[in-house]
Amino acid sequence: MTILVETRPGYRLITLNRPERLNALTVEMAAALIAALDSAAADKSCRAVLLTGAGRGFCAGQDLTAIAGIEPEEIGDLLDHYNPLIEKLHALPLPVVCAVNGVAAGAGANLALACDIVVAARSASFVQAFARIGLIPDCGGTWFLPRLVGTARARALAMLAEPVPAATAAEWGMIWQAIDDDRLMPEAYALAVRLAGGPTAALALIKRALDESEVNELDEQLDLERDLQEEAAESPDHAEGLRAFLDKRAPVFGPRAD
Ligand code: T3D
C-alpha cells in the first residue's frame, strides 16, 4: 500500500509509504491521499489529521522514474492529479499537522507546506528541487513559498534548489517548529491529540479566514471576520469555552457538530 491510514482516537494518521523511494509520489498515491482526506472529513469522530512519511524521508516529490520519457504535455496532465490533492489538503475543514521526518523535496516539500502546522525533525530538510531537473516549483510552491518566507528567499530557494535545514525553515517562518529527531513523532501525536480536542468548528473557520486574507482588502477581511465570528459564536464550543472560563476550569469541547 502506497499510504497507510490509521484511525486513532480523535484523529487520522496518514503515512506516505514508499520508503525505498523516499516516499516519492505517484498518481495512485495522490488518489489514495485524496480518498483518505475525504474519509477523514466525512467521519464525525475525526477532528484532526496527521501526515508523515515512512522510513528516512518524508517525500522526494514526483517519482522521477515514472516521468522519464513522457511527453511535456503529460507532465502538465500529471498535475491534474496533484493539484486537487493540494487544494483538498489546504481547504480541509479540519486541522492538518505535517510531521516531516526526513527530506522533503520537490512536490514533497510543497505537500508539507500545504498543511496547517508543519513540524520537522532537526535532521530533515526542504528542497525546492525542481530547477535541478529544469522544472518550476509546482504543487503550490510558487504560492506558498513567497507567502511564508518572502519573495527574496522564495526566489533564491526556487532558483538555486538548495536544501533548507529544518531549524532554518523554522527560523524563516516556513514551518512551525524543528524538533529533535527522537521527539518528532511523540510531539506530533500530542499536537494532533490537542487539536482533536479543540473547538473544531472554530479551527475550520480560522483556516477560512486566514486563507481569504490572502486576497482580501482590510475592509473585506473585517466584514468576513464579523460573519465568521457570528458562526463561531453559534457553536456549542463557544458556549462551553465561555462557561469554562467563568467556572475557572479547562474547557471540554464537544464532538463535531457539522
Ligand atoms: O507534473 C510533473 O510530473 C512534474 C511534477 C514535478 C513535481 C516534482 O516533485 S519535481 C521534483 C522531483 N524530485 C526531485 O527532483 C528530488 C529527487 N531526489 C533527490 O534529489 C534526492 O533523492 C534527495 C535530495 C531527495 C535525497 O537524497 P539522498 O542522497 O538522501 O537519497 P538518494 O540516495 O538520492 O535516494 C534514495 C533512493 O530513493 C534512491 O534509490 P536507490 O538508488 O536506493 O534505488 C533514489 O533513486 C530514490 N529516489 C529519490 N528521489 C526519488 C527517487 N526515486 C524516484 N523519484 C524520486 N523523486
| Ions and ligands | ligand T3D
Output the radius of gyration: 19 Å
User: Any idea of the CATH topology of the largest domain?
Assistant: 2-enoyl-CoA Hydratase, Chain A, domain 1
Q: How would you sum up the global shape? A: globular
Count of helical regions? 10
**What is the average per-residue confidence, as pLDDT, rounded to a whole number?**
97
For the record, the CATH architecture of the largest domain stands as Alpha-Beta Complex
| Through-space gap between termini | 31 Å
Provide the number of structural domains. Answer: 2
Strand percentage lies at 15-25%
Q: Report the top-level CATH class of the largest domain.
A: Alpha Beta
Q: Biggest β-sheet: count, sense, barrel?
A: 6 strands, mixed
Strand order of the largest sheet: 1-2-3-5-7-10
Summarize the structure in words:
With 258 residues, the protein is α/β, with parallel strands linked by helices. The chain folds into 2 domains: 3-196, 2-enoyl-CoA Hydratase, Chain A, domain 1 (Alpha-Beta Complex); 200-247, Lyase 2-enoyl-coa Hydratase, Chain  A, domain 2. 49% of the residues lie in helices and 16% in strands. It is built from 10 helices and 10 strands. The chain has helices at residues 27-42, 72-91, 107-113, 141-149, 151-160, 166-172, 181-196, 200-213, 218-233, 236-247; strands at 3-8, 11-16, 49-53, 57-59, 96-100, 103-105, 117-121, 125-127, 164-165, 177-179. The strands form 2 sheets. The chain has a 6-stranded mixed β-sheet with strand order 1-2-3-5-7-10, sandwiched between helices. A 4-stranded mixed β-sheet has the order 4-6-8-9. Helix 1 runs parallel beside helix 2 (72-91), helix 4 (141-149) packs across helix 5 (151-160) and helix 8 packs antiparallel against helix 9. The mean pLDDT is 97.
